[in-house]
Amino acid sequence: MTKIIFPALVALLSFCTVFADDFSFGAISTEEKEMQQCAYDSTANAVVLREYGRARFSFDDQSGAINLIFTHHVRLKIFNKEGVKQANIVIPLYKDGDRIEYVQELKAVTLNPQTNGTKVETWLETKNTYKEEYSKYVTLTKFTMPNIQNGSIIEYSYQIISPRLYNFRNWEFQTDIPKIYSEYEAIIPGTYNYNVVMRGPFKLSDQKSALVREGFRLPGWPIDCSQLTYIMKNVPAFIEEDYMTAASNFKSAIYFELADVLLRNGSKRSFTKEWKNVDRELMLDRSLGGQAKQKDEFEKVMPEITQHVQGDLNKAKAIYSFIKKQIKWNKYYGIFSELGVRKALDQHTGNIADINLALIAALAAGGLDAEVVILSTRENGIVNKLNPVISEFNYLIAKLTVAGESYFLDASDPLLPFGMLPLRCINDQGRVLPIKQSSYWVDLMPKEKHHVQYTLIGELLTDGTLKGKLVTSSYGYAAYLKRKEIVDYPSVEEYFEKKKSETPGMQILHEEISGLDTIERSLQERCEVSINLFDSLQNHQLFFNPFFMNKTNKNPFNLNERTYPVDIGMLQEESLNLDVKLPDGYELVSKPKDMNLALMDKGGQFVNRTRLENGHLFCNQLFRLNKMIYGSEEYLSLKEFFSRIIQLQKTDVVLQEKTI
């Protein structure tokens, strides 16, 4: 990440009195009409031909408010049916109480060039746009471009009027399709000073700065503006793959953060703060620190909660269980309480902060050492470590210390064991906010791994049927995720019915689950199974694949190059133990070769052993990923690791009938 700080008035700027021009709407060039594919990415299904954005301040004379006017103009071409989804346009608009963004001056057209050199224009009608309430904070304006065909060029532009000045308007050069040309202008009054941060792997093609005399005006106060232009050409598409955090962490983009504002009286209001100031503000805030101190709400019920437990750790587990039962999560994130601890308890519902601030207060009422931790979830992105930007944090958990051991707690999920965080929280670091001491960063590292064991003991019949007992044991995160999957069904029986339908070659004759309700322990699924491995004998030979339970069918890594890390979130382990009695009179002809693959620096391991002994076929397999994060430089070796596993698991066991 590169950090560039631009004062709003730069002494050595060239002078300019007008804003730069947007490109002409509808003026399609011959080259754009005839383009059959992206010159630098022949696999692209569509390409942005040209894109322009501009953000500037505007003073509303009627309301006296300062707004940000953001103009966005895009022209792109669709090459094939896979690119048609680019005709679905979504404009997110943010709202916070009376502070609401809205769209104006929307126009959009689809142009389909004809063989005779003419073009057919189909304009979007206003009635074909609609709004969707994505959340209480975001409304989506959506529309689909009309008359889309292979070779269509679509063009649209709009303005967003926004009261959100703190982050100005960020700009993403990278999206899921390549861009031939992307330009962004930020026109910033000299009274506003922003820190500008460039993220991503690609450099700007050009960067310009100029001075716009009296580019912004308040009543009786003309203000000069900085005109900052950023251009990137031939931008590759950003392809999202499995095992990654927020794409915004890695896309080439520009971010703005308000540092300070020069007021009319000559004083300066600073927005860039130090943690020591933010600590105090947050812990004095009625919706955060004020709620964490509400231990009085629990003092009367504490004897009842902890009456049958001994020791601080068991006391903490009892309190954790109590809060999970008392307050149901309403599916909203946040570091600030929406209802407050008292009302959340009364209404038995609340956002993440309501729940976990109640947990912290209850732990304090029990005489335990609990602290607030604020963090940014995986899909929200990594926060800026240089300066505290509270708007970047969207989640709050508890940090408990017992006998020198630390535990992270989130009471929002009834199935989440004590001391385990949901995957959404495992994202770099969180900020601990002690009541009386300075805040500090802490790694959000899971103690548990995702661990599954498969054990099958059975007998293979000559008709190709394998009958036996299958035990699937899930531990740690695997057990947690399996419980979440099972409880989504009305009953365990319906879960198994679904499992039967998903494994057409396997009949489940009898099944049972243990450990479903004891979330601190492993979960076991025991089944009597009948598996059809092959249909008939071929030349007195039996062919079957022993990897029918945990087979890896698809490599999760398919890029030629990945510019961002592989973030799995937790350690992974999976093992298979197969013991199959073979039909009498058969011998082993060939089998999957024994293998011991290892990633560099003990980053992972795959072991496979197959042997025939006393008429039994034994297959033992172990798969481990020993790192939670693999750097982009390790990507190709990880890709090859999975590729070799997949190749091995395609190999059959071949048994030959013995000749007399």
What keywords describe this structure?
DUF3857 domain-containing protein; 9-stranded mixed sheet; C8orf32 fold; 3 domains; 8-stranded mixed sheet; signal; DUF3857; disordered N terminus; mainly beta; 660 residues
Structure, described:
It is globular, with a radius of gyration of 30 Å. The strands form 8 sheets. The chain has a 9-stranded mixed sheet with strand order 2-15-16-13-3-4-11-7-8, with no helix packed on it. An 8-stranded mixed sheet has the order 28-29-27-26-32-36-35-34. The protein folds into 3 domains: 2-270, Immunoglobulin-like; 275-443, C8orf32 fold (Roll); 450-657, Jelly Rolls, CATH 2.60.120. Residues 1-19 have low confidence and may be disordered. It is mainly beta and 660 residues long. Keywords: Signal. Pfam families: DUF3857 (PF12969). Residues 70-198 form the DUF3857 domain. InterPro entries: DUF3857.
> What is the first-to-last residue Cα distance?
73 Å
Pairing-aware structural class of the strands and helices?
Answer: mainly beta
The count of DSSP E runs of length 2 or more, i.e. the number of strands, is 38
CATH level-1 class of the largest domain: Mainly Beta
Rg over CA atoms, rounded to whole Å, is: 30 Å
What's the number of structural domains? 3
Topology-level CATH name of the largest domain: Immunoglobulin-like
Task: Identify the overall geometry.
Answer: globular
Characterize the main sheet: 9 strands, mixed
As a percent range, the share of strand residues is 35-45%
Total of DSSP H or I helical runs spanning 4+ residues: 10
The CATH architecture classification of the largest domain is Sandwich
